[in-house]
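Narrative of activities, Objective 1.

The group set out to show that a structural description can be obtained from nothing but a protein's sequence at a throughput compatible with the screening campaign. Below is one input-output pair from the validation batch, recorded exactly as produced.
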Amino acid sequence: MSERGEAAVSSGAPRHTDRPPNCVRVAAVGDVHLDDDVLGRFRPALEHLGGKADVLLLAGDLTRHGTSDEARCVAQEFGGLAVPVVAVLGNHDYHSDAPDEVTKILEDAGIIVLERSGVVLDCFGVRLGIAGAKGFGGGFAGRCASEFGEPEMKAFIRHTRTISEEFGAALREQQCDVLVALTHYAPVPETLLGEPPEIYPFLGSYLLAQAIDSASTALAVHGHAHAGSERGMTPGGVSVRNVAHPVIKQAYNVYQLTAPALV
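Output recorded for this entry:
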């Protein structure tokens, strides 16, 4: 990633006509769980998105059961917007064992789907890099599982470690001015506050935070924790936001990022 200094994060965003220099406005939401019975719930707010944000991030669990019909609902709801849409899948999107089909339907609608990969977008002269991965569970420092014991337990944590290492590599590969990390599972426990502590190991992993901290990340967004809290921070000081729809309680939140090195 290019040298750029730390990016400042703030909520809310001005319209195009009064945008501050060298800023990018990131809208984000997760856990929309679309099916035909809720189709159209988000679209009215999304029609005005072009005046409020430069990109929309979808933090997984876009469907209820990961079926092709539900994926087509997501494509209809979030396709054809005035800004680029970048998504990762969540655990619900894998339930029908058809993530490739879900991904293709979304991509055919113009939605960029990331999995341990990244994309760089030009946002009014600011290069916004986004690296994304679904992530996985395992827990957090001091209360986490390890690659020890039964083959099933070792495979569980090895899966999280592999995802995290490849996610970290994708973050570090982005040549950009401002870098955002997009996951479904949580990288820190702070954004899980409100969830039963007993299920924290199934909601995220500290290994994702290690990946985020391995690059010059300005902001990390995730979903998954419906009863969690919005704000957290990685051990390395990266702002983390839980944008699950039940948490933010609106069609999307907008985060404004500025790159001081460009000033």
